[in-house]
Write a structure and sequence with these properties.
The complex is a heterodimer. Chain A has one domain (2-135): P-loop containing nucleotide triphosphate hydrolases (Rossmann fold), CATH 3.40.50. In chain A, 26% of the residues lie in helices and 29% in strands. Chain A is built from 4 helices and 7 strands. In chain A, strand 3 (66-69) and strand 4 (73-77) form a beta hairpin. Chain A starts with a strand and ends with a strand. By secondary structure, chain B is α/β, with parallel strands linked by helices. Chain B folds into 2 domains: 2-116 and 324-342, ATPase, nucleotide binding domain (Nucleotidyltransferase, domain 5); 131-315, Nucleotidyltransferase, domain 5 (2-Layer Sandwich). Chain B has helices spanning 48-65, 85-102, 111-125, 166-176, 184-190, 216-227, 232-244, 250-255, 259-287, 302-310, 322-325, 330-342; strands spanning 2-7, 14-19, 23-29, 73-81, 106-110, 134-139, 144-150, 154-160, 291-295, 317-318. A 5-stranded mixed sheet of chain B has the order 3-2-1-4-5, with helices on both faces. In chain B, strands 8-7-6-9-10 form a 5-stranded mixed sheet, with helices on both faces. Chain B is globular, with a radius of gyration of 21 Å. Chain B starts with a strand and ends in an 18-residue tail after the last helix. The chains are: A alpha/beta, B alpha/beta.
Chain lengths: 137, 360
């Protein structure tokens, strides 16, 4: 388990970048945290660390559900989905089989969907501080 | 020249027949069809499976309502991106199959270009064509973009959101406060009952492109306002209302929305609108715009429409009719018309592109 604390958006992006650089080419990452915890901000850094896109290119996929960065990084947001059945029909299984990094926001609401070999990153916002916990390391 | 347009980039399956790029003979959106009536029209058309179910009846309804046969068509236009690949593929594959069977030309259209053409086409219909260069503000649940538009097919991206789309911020604030999701229209209806100056939300200063937007910080600011109060009971009353009646009337909402909450809704909406119009104004000035085009779902927002009028820009401001603001296929058929005239056609290798850009 690794724990980071950040005090600004830039620092959160920098932590994401560090996490991104250490990732294998095939990985599933659940980004877990409340509204405004910094999930999309951290995703900006991870995508940058993976060399897939600049942070300005990474925006929230809430409405569009899936954003693709090249063919190696997918950023998924299940915020507006209520049922597991609907998630299944999105074709995530196929994404998970690819040699790609899949970042998922609000994925913890559907615990049955994810393989056990995943990385979970929890984000907590306490005033202007963000605590970021990565398991497993 | 009649074009059949097909749109399936995100939630909506839609088809339309448009003549000469301006005359809308039909415009059908799946969630408005009778078969969905029992769900109150709020079926999440999320996945390709839903599009698959809807595409044939929607296209058929569009042709029937237009009194049009395949033999009357000059081309078929389809959204090629951006959007969900699985969803886009349903429309693209169906369009290709129809083109192949009926020997019709295929025209791929960018969804965002469609939103811009919803307005260009309406302006032509109303006899007050857009003057160029124009500034286009495309603002919806998924997009917040500023484009320079030069004529019917030349675009330059001037700015976009760095994080949340404006419509997304509306929807998330509404859900947070117990107004359901999506909740943009609810906030718009209740905002006039609150004081838009009651709460000051300060927006973070951004580095980089001064024409980029950011709405994530505003969403977080509303969250903090919410957390600093004990609102559980109030929110629960609204959720109860929503469970009893999925579409409450304004008076019903007001009955469970104290003044402080009305004020925060009004202040939030004012902040978003000011942000949109401030950047639109400076973008318009930087390109010497002769018109402002506002399109996308958030263009339905009455507060935005009123504020754009009050801003007294030195050029006309064009909003689409509400039915043409949200996702539809008439805009896709309209955008395809100038392409067809130029002979800018696609073949059966047209791919679905999730990240299709209009201009870099």
């Amino acid at each position: 388990m690794r724990v980071f604390e950040t005090y600004s958006e830039d620092e959160t992006i920098a932590v994401g970048e560090e996490i991104g650089r250490g990732l294998p080419s095939h990985a599933l990452i659940l980004l877990i945290g409340n509204l405004g915890a910094g999930k999309t901000t951290l995703a900006k850094g991870i995508v940058k660390g993976l060399g897939a896109a600049a942070p300005e290119e990474v925006s929230s996929p809430t409405f569009t559900l899936i954003h693709e960065y090249g063919d190696r990084v997918y950023h998924v947001d299940l915020y507006r989905i209520d049922e597991e059945r609907e998630v299944r029909s999105l074709g995530l299984d196929e994404l998970l089989d690819r040699d790609a990094v899949i970042l998922v926001e609000w994925g913890e609401r559907f615990p049955n969907l994810w393989p056990p070999n995943r990385i979970e990153i929890r984000l907590e916002a306490i005033d202007d501080t963000r605590r970021i916990t990565v398991t497993p390391a | 020249m009649r074009i059949l347009g097909i749109e399936s980039s995100c939630d909506e399956t839609a088809a339309a027949v448009v003549e000469d790029g301006t005359r809308i003979l039909s415009s059908v959106v799946a969630s408005q069809l009778e078969t969905h009536g029992k769900y109150g029209g709020v079926v999440p058309e999320l996945a390709s499976r839903e599009h698959l179910r809807a595409i044939v009846p929607v296209v058929r309804a569009a042709l029937e309502q237009a009194g049009t046969d395949y033999a009357d068509l000059a081309a078929i236009a389809v959204t090629a991106g951006p959007g969900l690949v699985g969803a886009l593929l349903v429309g693209i594959t169906y369009a290709k199959a129809l083109c192949f069977a009926r020997e019709l030309p295929l025209v791929g259209v960018n969804h965002i270009e469609g939103h811009i053409h919803a307005v260009i086409s309406q302006a032509l219909r109303e006899g007050r064509p857009i003057e160029y260069p124009a500034l286009a503000l495309v603002v919806s649940g998924g997009h917040t973009h500023l484009f320079e538009v030069n004529g019917e097919s030349r675009y330059r991206l001037l700015g976009k959101t760095r994080d949340d789309a404006a419509g997304e911020a509306f929807d998330k604030v509404a859900k947070l406060l117990g107004f359901g999701y999506p909740g943009g229209p609810v906030i718009d209806k209740l905002a006039p009952y609150g004081n838009p100056r009651a709460v000051r939300f300060t927006l973070a200063k951004m580095k980089g492109n001064p024409l980029d937007f950011s709405f994530s910080g505003l969403k977080t600011a509303v969250l903090r306002w919410f957390q600093s109060r004990d609102m559980a009971e109030e929110v629960e009353r609204r959720r109860e209302l929503l469970r009893a009646n999925p579409r409450p009337r304004v008076e019903e909402w007001l009955a469970v929305t104290p003044q402080a909450t009305r004020d925060v809704l009004a202040s939030f909406q004012r902040t978003v609108i000011e942000e949109l119009l401030r950047r639109a104004a400076s973008a318009a000035e930087s390109i010497g715009a002769r018109a402002l085009i506002v399109s996308g779902g958030v263009a339905c927002n009455t507060g935005l429409r009123a504020a754009a009028e009050e801003a007294r820009f030195p050029f006309p401001v064009h909003f689409p009719l509400p039915a043409l603001s949200t996702d539809n296929a008439a805009m896709i058929a309209a955008a395809a018309f100038p392409k067809l005239k130029r002979g800018q056609l696609d073949d059966f290798t047209l791919p679905a592109r999730a990240n299709l850009t209009l201009a870099d």
